[in-house]
What does this fold into?
Amino acid sequence: MQEDYLKSIISENAKNMRRSAIRDLLKMATRPEIISFGGGFPDITAFPVDELRTVIQEVLDENAIQALQYGETLGVKKLREILAQRYRDQGIDVTYENFIITTSSQQAIDMVTQLFINPGDTIVCGLPSYLGALQAFYAHRANPVGIPKDEELHTVVNALVAAGKKPKFIYAIPDFQNPSGVTMNIEQRQNVLDVASKFDLLVLEDSPYREIRFSGEPMPQIYSMDKEGRTLLLGTFSKTFLPGFRLGWIMAPVKIIERLEIVKQSADLCAPVFNQFIVARFIEKGYFDKNVERIKINYRNKRDNMIAAFEKYMPEGVTWTNPEGGLFLFVTLPEGYDTSELFRIAINEDVAFVIGEAFHCDGSGKNTLRINFSYMEETRAEEGVRRLANAIRKMMQDKKAKGQ
It folds into this structure.
């Protein structure tokens, strides 16, 4: 098919879709000698293979007919009941009717965007913010507006409303944000709700990492603080159980769940039923919480190892976040440096990362980069930081030599 003809017939939504900078950049990092901090991958040693083998056999022995058949669009009721109970244990008043099971939290973001966004609508998000969410927003022709500092939220939203561009929702990742790794304090969370209430906005609380807290004090979820029913919470089993199962959920007021059910029916009818039965049984047997505890210990050690390596090797002027949980930390170079340029140098040093600009909807963040600390084995991770530091020094020396 001719390229010109293809361009002439694809939809306006498709024309607005953007490729993942992460996927494209990491195509360059496939050589085995390259140490990659690019993907948001869990540690493979966290996969509970032995327990999983037991649970799968039990599901096949006891629930094969239901587990291997099509299921409800909303998801397996047992799993939704389990999720509801877990949130009730945290003091949140929900039932299974407040949940829809999705094919990963990425689908959840896309479904919510599809439900609420018309072409040209405005969304407010962090600066930086999760690249996958930005891709979903662009695909539905939304205009994301970034908030560089939480205290600027009211000012930015007020200006948008005054300009006739009232946002549909505020998108936030309050715990161990991707890519920055930072956590919103309780005042910042309340500020999100106060602004949403004043301007009558929804809040999309993306919560894929919350259970992976290994230091600091837990903050209440925005959903639990919301007294007006304007928050939708997204969760996933990809970081706490198995990414290959592609299971997530949306927790929201029932009227919104009913609308989301229709959206999902047009997408894939239902999330993988067999996987849902396995997850439900896995949680019931107590395996899930034990595995999360193992993950937290492992990731705390990996975080500490990564921070120590940064302190040991990084040149002066480079700063980084120190996350209390999750999978990522964010690195900032002095102003005037471009991590797209650094990436090319780093590849020659056999190390890879994700450029920070990809997470900034306004094109800023050129001097930033995201580092994943959860995947790589600790000794190799330290070597990767050493290589990255060498690449940064080379770029700094080259810039100095050119008098820039």
